[in-house]
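Try it yourself: sequence plus adenosine-5'-triphosphate, in.
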Amino acid sequence: MLRTGDPCLEIEGLIHDVGPIAAEGGRMKRVLAGVDLAAHRGQVTVLLGVNGAGKTTTLECAQGLRRRTGGTVRLLGQDPQTASAELRSRVGVMLQDGGLPPSARPLALLRHVAGMYRDPLPVAELAERLGLNEFAGTTIRRLSGGQKQRVALAAALIGRPDVVFLDEPSAGLDPQSRQVVFDLIADLRTQGLGIILTTHLLDDAERLADWVAILDRGRIVAEGTVAELLGTATTTARRLTLRATAGLDLAEAFAGTGPVDIAEAPAGHYTIDGELTTAHLAALTRWLDARGIMPSSLELGRHSLEDVFLGIAEASAEEELASTARKTA
Ligand SMILES: Nc1ncnc2c1ncn2[C@@H]1O[C@H](COP(=O)(O)OP(=O)(O)OP(=O)(O)O)[C@@H](O)[C@H]1O
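Structure, out:
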């Protein structure tokens, strides 16, 4: 996909070391090992990775909240570590644990934050959109995780930023609030904001992302649109699941087609894996028809981002094992 819109964030070779770590013999730990990432205006860029992959650290280095050990970061054209107050006012940030003052009430807090900007969004409008009025009189400390999350999102957006960082924006949200937040993110994208968000939820990435970068052990291991990432999986096995009478000799059904792996577990639940084509489907249904067997279900599995993600995570874990084995040999 052509990435349209000006780049709002350009990261090259980002390295971040932490430590010294006492538990590791006083050694430094490399948390980011050369991250390259670009985010553009008018797009949602999703940084996807398992717990501990380095997502939050990448965001914090991108915002200048952590000093990097190496590499370059340009946020709206400036180095965030030495950025002007003017740059900061153009960046919205929603951190993972909110960072909200516990004794404040949501609307008073938002009015206060709005007062720091030259041209803030109307507080009432944002509060209405994010459903904050339901708990306007409650102090932040008494709000649920999802309610705090919505207040934190409002605070990140109130200054009409050009770029917004959202760390796990859907964490703790019920399905309805999640939809509200996702719709808002989609609107912000249409308005030309650059949105960079982290998640470990594949569903979030599939629903929101214009561009996905998969982070694993401090490195970007794959990136592209969701379609492109799924495209990389089309050459790998696809799965057919069938529920029918127990004990069928399905190998016979596929005798004239390309090779497949067939498993039956539990009885009557079959999975057929392989490079499946319409010829496999035709062979199976012909074989069933000839025996008068009507399956109770027959489903062709589509690839999901989960397949891609799990494949990458597995390959990376194997690589790490091999490298540890080499070091200890
Ligand atoms: N100051 C620090 N001292 C020691 N280890 C650290 C420090 N900061 C980060 N780490 C480690 O760096 C790794 C990356 O952390 P980070 O919070 O960026 O991951 P993440 O992908 O955001 O994970 P999560 O999804 O759990 O938030 C983790 O293993 C974390 O424990």
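One thing you can check immediately is this: Residues 30 and 326 are 19 Å apart (CA to CA).
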